[in-house]
Design a protein that fits this description.
Number of domains: 1
Radius of gyration: 16 Å
Low-confidence stretches: none
Bound molecules: coenzyme A
CATH superfamily: Gcn5-related N-acetyltransferase (GNAT)
CATH class: Alpha Beta
Strand content: 25-35%
Number of strands: 8
CATH topology: Aminopeptidase
Mean pLDDT: 94
CATH architecture: 3-Layer(aba) Sandwich
Distance between the termini: 20 Å
Structural class: alpha+beta
Number of helices: 5
Largest sheet: 8 strands, mixed
Order of helices and strands: EHEEHEHEHEEHE
Helix content: 25-40%
Shape: globular
Strand order of the largest sheet: 6-7-5-4-3-2-1-8
Length: 174
């Protein structure tokens, strides 16, 4: 597979042909993603290959978010300032087109999201996700820890230890 680059979702990307096993993630991309971008509810990033720049291989969304300090496991609280609310980033959605599964695109996108939040000027303590039932083991592989129910998080400090390459460029960003 050609090397991928990650771009902000734009009109020229073909949202209609994207297909993954979770229909709601297809519908979101088709029907809501551009609105979310416009209304600044989420930033939407897509992976494309240079040979097919309209074809969305996978995508993820990022939004500013917060969780209560008390919801964070005690061992992770030691990494944090003692404010009642912890500023984090929500990885609201992550999906890879079925045709591209098995090529570590999901991993590539997750590391790209971590790289992005590690290098932004706005402080964020980590990445939070509300995992679909089948996807929780995927996130656990990368060090995510359960907060409550389907909610997991990966402290940025932990991510930087686990994946030092996160601070180097993982993708050709726009
Ligand atoms: C979950 C998803 C994003 C993973 O992306 P992917 O490109 O298929 O996965 P990758 O190829 O990057 O997988 C990396 C590793 O994780 C493993 N893995 C992938 N999905 C997994 C899962 N659901 N559970 C456990 N392990 C998983 C792979 O086997 C691979 O392991 P390896 O390094 O030993 O080969 C993708 O399968 C998807 O879009 N699923 C449907 C939508 C979804 O569930 N999104 C998550 C919403 S919370």
């Amino acid at each position: 597979m050609d090397p991928l680059r990650v771009e902000r979702l734009a009109r020229h990307h073909d949202r209609a042909v994207f297909h993954c096993p979770e229909g709601a993630l297809d519908t979101y991309l088709r029907e809501r993603a551009m609105q979310d971008v416009k209304r600044r509810a989420a930033a939407v990033f897509v992976a494309v290959s240079p040979g097919a720049p309209h074809r969305i291989v996978g995508y993820y969304t990022l939004s500013a978010f917060s969780v209560q300090l008390t919801a964070i496991p005690p061992q992770d609280q030691r990494l944090l300032a003692r404010y009642p609310d912890v500023a984090v980033t929500l990885l609201g959605r992550l999906a890879v087109d079925t045709a591209y599964r098995g090529h570590h695109v999901g991993e590539f996108l997750l590391l790209d999201a971590l790289h992005r939040i590690a290098t932004t000027d706005i402080a964020t303590a980590g990445l939070v996700i509300d995992a679909l039932p089948n996807a929780a083991p995927f996130y656990e592989r990368y060090g995510f820890r359960q907060l409550q129910g389907a909610r997991y998080w990966l402290p940025l400090q932990t991510a930087l230890q686990l994946f030092p390459e996160v601070l180097s460029s993982t993708a050709d960003h726009d």
